[in-house]
Amino acid sequence: MSELEAELRKAVRGEVGFDVTSRALTTMDASNYRRVPLGVVAPHDADDVAAVLEVCRDHMVPVVARGGGTSIAGQATGTGIVLDFTRHMNGLVSLDPDTRTAVVQPGLVLDRLQEAAAAHGLRFGPDPSTHSRCTLGGMIGNNSCGSHSVAWGTTADSVRELEVVSGRGQRLRLGQDWAGAPQGLRDVVDGELARLRTGFPELPRRISGYALDALLPENGADVARSFCGSEGTLGIVTEAVVRLVEAPRARALAVLGYGDEGAAAEAAAGLLPYGPLTVEGMAADLVPSAHVLPRGGAWLFVETGGESQDEARARAEAIVRAADVVGSTVVTDPGGQRALWRIREDASGTATRMPDGSEAWPGWEDCAVPPQRLGAYLRDFRALLTAHGLRGTPYGHFGDGCIHVRIDFDLLTEPGVAAFRRFSEELAEVVVAHGGSLSGEHGDGQARAELLPKMYGHDMVRLFERAKGVWDPDDLLNPGMLVRPAPLDADLRFSVLPREPVDVAFGYPADGGDFSAAVRRCVGVAKCRTTSAAGPAVMCPSFRATGEEEHSTRGRARLLHEMLAGELVTDGWRSTEVRDALDLCLACKGCRSDCPVEVDMATYKAEFLHHHYEGRRRPAAHHSMGRLPQWLRLVARTRTAPLVNALAAVPPFAWAAKRLGGIAPERDIPRLAARTFSRWWERREKAPVGTGGDLVLLWPDTFTEHLSPNVGQAAVRVLEAAGLRVALPPTVRWRTPSGGGEEVTVAMDPVSLLRGRERVCCGLTYISTGQLDRARAVLRRTLDLMEPVLGTAAPVVVLEPSCAAALRSDLPELLHDDPRARRLADRVLTFAEALERHAPDWTPPRVERPVVGQTHCHQHAVLGDAPDGRLREAAGLAGELSGGCCGLAGNFGFEKGHYEVSVACAEEQVLPAVRGAGEGAVVLADGYSCRTQLEQLAGVRGRHLAEVLAEGLGASG
Hints:
Layout: H1 3-11, E1 15-17, H2 20-24, E2 39-42, H3 46-59, E3 63-66, E4 81-84, E5 92-96, E6 101-104, H4 110-118, E7 122-123, H5 136-142, H6 149-152, E8 159-166, E9 171-174, H7 185-190, H8 193-198, H9 223-227, E10 235-243, E11 245-246, E12 250-258, H10 261-268, E13 278-283, E14 298-306, H11 309-322, E15 327-331, H12 334-345, H13 347-350, H14 374-387, E16 395-397, E17 402-404, H15 414-433, H16 445-448, H17 452-456, H18 458-471, H19 515-520, H20 541-546, H21 553-565, H22 576-583, H23 590-594, H24 601-612, H25 620-624, H26 628-638, H27 641-648, H28 651-661, H29 677-683, E18 695-699, H30 702-706, H31 709-721, E19 725-727, H32 741-748, H33 764-768, H34 772-790, E20 796-798, H35 801-814, H36 819-826, E21 828-830, H37 831-838, E22 849-853, H38 857-863, H39 866-874, E23 877-878, H40 899-908, H41 910-915, E24 922-924, H42 928-938, H43 945-952
Parallel strand pairs: 2-4, 3-4, 18-19, 18-20, 20-21, 22-23, 22-24
Antiparallel strand pairs: 1-2, 5-6, 6-10, 7-11, 8-9, 8-10, 12-14, 12-15, 13-14, 13-16, 16-17
C-alpha cells in the first residue's frame, strides 16, 4: 500500500480504491480520452472532500470530481485521485415548493430530482439526454442544458447557491454580490471590467471558458453562476441550492418534417416567438425507424405546454400552421411523446455509427452559434467536412443554435489523428467566424480548451489563468482542462488498443470480425446506468440491483477495453477483474437492443469465459448447468426422472446435489417431467402431414422437452387448430438431402426423437457458460441434422425465447464460417410469428382476461414482441407486460452466489406486477426461467401464451 493510499484511508470515512478494477472503471468518460488514475475515493460528505484535498495537496496529486461519467470532452478523467460522488453524496437534502428551490448533493441523478419535484407540479429546467444517469454536480461543472433550454435556460440559470471546497481547502458558500468569493477574485475582475464587458459573444449557449462576465456588477457579481461550467478546475461542489420551475400541466409534441437538415436549421429560429419548450433537430440518418415520423429528411421536435391538453395541442397546431414543412404530426399522448423523445435522446449513441456501420466519434460534439446563423453555419460545416473527406450527421438543440455531431475521424492511426487535429483547428475558426462558442453544452475539457485562444484571444485566456490561480493556486483540481490545457490529440483512448484483430470465437459481423472494435462500441453514454427501469427496457438489471459501475454494461466494457490495452489489466483473458465484473452479467442481452450502440455484453461474456477457462478447471455450475442438455437426455434415456425427482425432494440429497453442482442453496431443484415431450409426440394421434396448411417444424428445446412438455403439447394443439401441419426436426443425419419439399416432409415426420440417436440443440447453455468449442460441435451436429430441411420453405417454430434468440443470433455469429447457420437462423420464428405469417386468417379463441407478466429478455432484445402483442390483443388478453428482467436468466439465478441479485432483479418489476394482479389475471411467462422464478419466489404459476390459447380452445380430446 502506498503512503498516499494509507493516508487517504486514514483521513476519510468513504471507500478508497487503488485496486485495478476501481481505477479501470474511471479511466474514461464518454469522450475520446483515457487517463489512468492512481485511485478512486467515494466521499461520504464535505468533510471527506476536504480531507482528500488536504492529503492530495501534501502529495501534490491532482483531484478530479466525477458524477455519472457522461462528460464528452474528457473532463471526468484524471491521473490522480478521482472523487466518485454517486455512491454516497447522492441525496436530495430538501425541496421547498413554496420558494421553488431544492438543496441537492452533487451525486444526485437528475431524474431523482425531477421525480420529487413533479409531486409538487415543479421541475428542474435543464434536462440533458442523459437525464436518467447524469448528476447535478456534473451538470453544474459543465453548465449543462438539454432540450428545454429554449424555455428554461442552462444549469447556471437554475443555480442559486453553491457550497464548494476550493483547491486550498477553503469551505465557501457562493452566491450573488460576491458571496463566498475567494480572496483576490474581485481584484482580478475590477482590473479587467472593460475586457469582460466586450470579450464574450452574445448567444444562448456560450459554455466555453470561465463565465467571468457573471461577476460584473451589472450582472449581480454572481459567484455561483460564474462557477458553473468551470469543470471542476476551481473547486469541488459539495451541495447546491437550485431553482425549480413550474411544469406545464399538459404538453404536446409537434414533429415537423423538412427536406433536409439545412432547411430545418433555417426554420428553427423563426419558431422561437411562439414560445415553444423545445426546438430539437435531427436528420434521417439518425432515425432507425423513420416510418414513425412524418414525411421529411430532417425533423424539428417542437414541444408546447399548456394548462390543458387542448391548450397544449392548440399551441402545437399553431406552430405547424406557421411552419413551412413537408410533413407534420402532433402527438398529445404521453406514451407516444416518450417514444418519440427516445429517438432523439438515443442520438448520442446512434450517431457513433455511420449508415454503413463505420465508427464515428465526438470531438466537435456541441459547438453553438447564434440561432439565426445556424443554417449558414451548417453549410460551412458541411463544406469543411467534404474538404477533409469526413462524414457526420448533425443533430441537437437547433432552437439554441447548438449542434451535436459525431464524425468518422480515424483515431486509430497517426495520419488519422493528425487529420483530426487539422479539422479541429479549422472548424474552430469557422465557429468563431459565425460568432459562436466552441462549446454549447458539454464544456471544453481536453477536446476544445487548447483552441480557446481562437475564440477569446490570448489576453482573455490569460485572464482565465489568473482566475484559476485565485481558486486553485497549486493547480491540483482537474489540471489540463480549460487553462494550460493538454493537447486535444493526446491521451486518446484508442491508442492503447491492439492494431490487429485478436483471435476470437464469435464472428462479430457488425464489427468486421474485430473484438476490439466490438468493445469500442461502448462510447460511455451510460444508458446502462439508468437507475430505474421504465417501459419495456431491460438494460442493465445487474447495475440496478447493485448500483455498482462494475456491474453495468459500460463498466464491463471499460474493463474489457483495459484488458485489450494490457497496461492496467495485465493478464489478458486470464484477468480475474474482468471475470468478476462479468460474473453478475445475466446475459439477458438487454444491452443488445437498449444500448444505443448495441453493445452485446452477453456475447462478450461468453467469449471471455471461453478464453478464460481454456485448458483450466471450470466452475462446477458450468458442468452441471452448462451441460444440462446432456444430463437431461441421460435421464430421459434411462427413464429415471421419477427417481431424480424423489431424490431432489430429500433434503440431504438435494443439499449434496446443489453443493456438487455449484447451485445456490436457496434454490429448489426443478422437477423433471415424467414423460418427455417427444414421447408424448410419438404416442399421440397425429394428423397426416401431407395435407392441410403450411408445414412448420416445432423445435424440441431442452426446456420444453424435459421440463415443460405441457408447453409443447399446447403449442401443437394451437398450431394444428390454426390449420398448420406440425412436424419435429430430424434426429438422424441424412447423407443425401431430399430434393423436393414433399419428399422431405414425408421422410421427416415418421422419424421420432425416440428412434433417432441424435438431437437438435441451440447450444444455449454451452454458450452462456463460455463452452464455445462444445457449442460449435453441438451446433454443427444440429446443422447436419437440419440439412434436409434447409432446402424447404418450412419455418422452425421455437417456443423458448432464449433458444430462439440463440438460433437467430448466436448460431450465425458463432458458426460464421458455415453458410447453413444463416439459412437456419433466417427461418426461426416465435410461436406468435408462426401464427401471424403462416395462418394469417386464423382467429384465436377469445380468452377475455387481463394479463400480467414480463416480456422475456431475449425476446425483447433479439426477437421482438410485436407479433405476440397482436396475438394477445386478438385473443382478448388485455394489459401490458412489464420490462426489466426476471433475474433467473437460465443458469445465472441458480449459480451459487447469485441468489440475492437474482431476487433483486425480480423484485424490480415482475414480482410487484404479479402480486398486484387482479383476480382472474393470467400470468404470462414464455420463458422456462421466468416461470421457474415466479414459482419459486412468488408461488405463482406462469404460463406460456400457447398454454393460454390452448385452454381457450376447450378441453383437450
